[in-house]
Amino acid sequence: MLDRALLEELLAEVRLAPSVHNIQPTRWRLIGSDTLLLLEDVARRLPAADPSGHDVRLSHGAAIEGLSLGLGRRGLRIADVELLTDATASNGLQPVARITIAAGGELDGLADFVAARTSWRGGFRLFDQAGEAALYMFSAMAGDVQLLRGPETIDAIAQLADEAGFHFLCDGAHRAELLGWMRLSRSEPAYQRDGLSAEAMAMPGVVALGTRLVLGPLFPLLRRLGLAATLTSERGKFANGAVALFHRPAGEDPLVTGRAFHRTWLMLTAQGLAACPVSVLADWPASNRQLVERYGVPAGRRLVNVFRLGQPDGTPPGSRARLPVAELII
After folding, report:
1. pLDDT at 316
2. Using CA atoms, how far apart are residues 321 and 200, in angstroms rounded to an integer?
3. Is the pLDDT assigned to residue 266 strictly greater than 90?
């Protein structure tokens, strides 16, 4: 069923799945014609931002869902996902799962929106009638979200997001790791390969340069002067939008969570809505707890991530940084 040519065709789509900081940690090995080994590139871990490996594993789950969508388009399906919990890393690669492929797949309508999904880091315009209808359809489709509206609610969450973001930026190792994955100049060799490009983050050239300075050598001084929090604020980007709290069953394997996360984002895209994960709100225990308590995340569920979403005030970036398909196959 699978050969090298078909695998390359599939991975051209699978690599469009979201990953934390766009690190793209997932690698693939074809075994025979019906088995894929999913491996993690250990060098792409995030020891400061993701010490437990949760977000990297969630990224693998998103890639598995991307694979499922691509297979369905070709009449194939994932028959089994065997978790390799006791596997040992070798040559910088950690086996994560063995995936069995079978015939009998069906086209999933969300597959048509894989190429259009992107992280929108700009602002939003006021919802018009079409936008309101899109929100209604999304809330009806997505069973794992709490959709929040209203200027006061959204602004309160935006302020909390700034607090959470600044909490992490004040950790030198976390800030350095984030800056290391930012691609703030088109002259950087990795600009079109991975990480967070200036274009993807909606940063004009002068803003990108300023960001490099603010998050780099000037941060300690700016913090002492009380300016760092203001200069790193993204509160204004929430205006006119809505917020979706993405939650999943407590104790669920992040591989499964990642599949649902990718599907939820595709549901947003299918309705013509732009979205950006505000992961710090879920990652910081203080903000996570406040959101769960204030906005009624159901018992037995955990807050995994938070989307700010709406109708984009502008045009999404035309390209996305992705590794060549050949580098994803081991």
Report:
1. 82
2. 9
3. yes
